[in-house]
Design a protein that fits this description.
Helices cover 85% and strands 0% of the residues. It is mainly alpha-helical. The chain is rod-shaped and about 90 Å long.
Length: 111
């Protein structure tokens, strides 16, 4: 009988240990995961592909904006361009694209 209770206690202890490790994992993730994701995001935003992709996207929007003759369409495009450019450091933009975005801001009174 004593052996049975020792075996039962061992099984209960084993499952309690597994439960404690699972709880530790949840707590660890909730505390440290946001910091890890922040670092991953910062690394991603400094990659060459991200920077080139953002510049290319903004240049395509600039081309469409300059090609458009519709005032309402231009206003909508200007809003999208300003929103996309807001999170991108202006010093990484080519000079012509930077001045284009600054002109849109001036026209809309966003300065």
């Amino acid at each position: 009988m004593k052996t049975f209770f020792m075996w039962l206690g061992g099984v209960i202890l084993f499952f309690a240990l597994i439960w404690a490790l699972a709880l530790h994992s949840v707590v660890f993730q909730s505390v440290f995961a946001p910091m890890f994701e922040n670092v991953n995001r910062q690394v991603f935003e400094n990659t060459k592909s991200y920077n080139q992709g953002m510049i290319q996207e903004l240049q395509n929007m600039q081309f469409e904006y300059l090609r458009s003759t519709d005032k309402e369409g231009k206003a909508a495009m200007a809003t999208v361009i300003l929103q996309r450019a807001a999170d991108f450091p202006p010093e990484r933009l080519p000079l012509d694209l930077r001045s284009f975005i600054e002109n849109i801001k001036r026209e809309r009174g966003a300065y």
